């Protein structure tokens, strides 16, 4: 795997809209937040309100062109997806993978950006960063824990033992230790990858999962898809992040999230840790997808190798 060069004060970073549109009033706040980090933002057309295409930031052609151009431009040192939402997986057939492979650079985002993380990790051998985003979180005041993790990811200090927020202790669901390449992200996008050329490959890897706004039965269906596709059987271990606003459709007749984990993941017999402070919530840590991670579900603890 290729670990991209870290960013530095004054680094030029592309702001791209790979998924949903950015509200017009939020864009200048996001741009200023990037400047406040000591970076020099370059706003690509997919971030502009006038290029909105329905619920998408821009047309597939424009959004893919922005990503291709940002990777190809050697004066751009990193790429920040400005927000998530929907639509990144529509871009996969349109991306210039050969140019991306030969111009590796820092890339970050989360949620819908999972589709791009998976493809960049697997097709290009590029380590990418699951972090909070300019127009979703850090255009507004953010807690110190989340901002510290963001800066560590941006500037190359994400290494060694990973500190866990004191108010969010890790919860071991199945003991043991495992080491492997970290993969995954948003459950909905990973389930949607199955049967495509960009299907998530979990073999001997540590699989991270999180989601937002899904009914319990929907999470059941997506976890079952991954289980039936052998993704839990193949992996070395599982990390479960935040499940924000994931509620039962009928609170009186439901299974709990923990029941789903017990019935669909634990039979694989691999170490499983829940309550990782990462996902659609704050505080949220940053994770380097494609890097080698060691997990100890007995302690519990996480460490980048």
Automatic annotation (TrEMBL):
The keyword Protease applies. The keyword Hydrolase applies. It comes from the Bacteria. Pfam families: Peptidase_S66, Peptidase_S66C. Keywords: Carboxypeptidase, Hydrolase, Protease, Serine protease. Residues 13-130 form the LD-carboxypeptidase N-terminal domain. InterPro entries: Carboxypeptidase_A_C_sf, Class_I_gatase-like, LdcA_N, Peptidase_S66_N, Peptidase_S66C, S66_fam. This is LD-carboxypeptidase. It comes from Pseudoflavonifractor gallinarum.
């Amino acid at each position: 795997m290729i670990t991209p060069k870290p960013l530095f004060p004054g680094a030029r970073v592309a702001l791209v809209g790979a998924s949903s549109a950015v509200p017009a009033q939020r864009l200048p706040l996001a741009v200023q937040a990037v400047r406040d980090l000591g970076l020099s933002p370059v706003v690509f057309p997919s971030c502009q309100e006038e290029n909105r295409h329905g619920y998408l930031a821009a047309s597939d052609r424009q959004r893919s062109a922005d990503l291709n151009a940002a990777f190809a431009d050697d004066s751009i040192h990193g790429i920040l997806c400005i927000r998530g939402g929907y639509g990144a997986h529509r871009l996969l057939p349109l991306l210039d993978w050969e140019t991306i492979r030969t111009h590796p650079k820092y890339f970050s985002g989360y949620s819908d950006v999972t589709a791009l993380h998976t493809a960049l990790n697997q097709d290009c051998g590029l380590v990418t960063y699951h972090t909070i985003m300019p127009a979703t979180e850090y255009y507004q005041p953010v807690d110190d824990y989340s901002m510290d993790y963001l800066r560590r990811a941006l500037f190359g200090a994400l290494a060694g033992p990973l500190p866990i927020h004191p108010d969010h202790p890790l919860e071991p669901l199945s003991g043991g230790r495992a080491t492997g390449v970290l993969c995954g992200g948003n459950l909905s996008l990973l389930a949607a990858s199955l049967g495509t050329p960009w299907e998530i490959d979990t073999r001997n890897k540590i699989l991270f999962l999180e989601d937002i706004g899904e009914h319990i039965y929907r999470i059941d269906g997506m976890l079952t898809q991954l289980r039936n596709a052998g993704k839990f059987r193949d992996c070395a271990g599982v990390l479960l992040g935040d499940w924000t606003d994931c509620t039962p459709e009928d609170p009186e007749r439901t299974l709990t999230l923990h029941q789903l984990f017990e019935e669909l993941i634990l039979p694989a017999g691999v170490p499983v840790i829940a309550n990782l402070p990462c996902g659609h919530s704050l505080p949220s840590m940053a994770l380097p997808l494609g890097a080698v991670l060691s997990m100890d579900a007995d302690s519990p603890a996480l460490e980048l190798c």
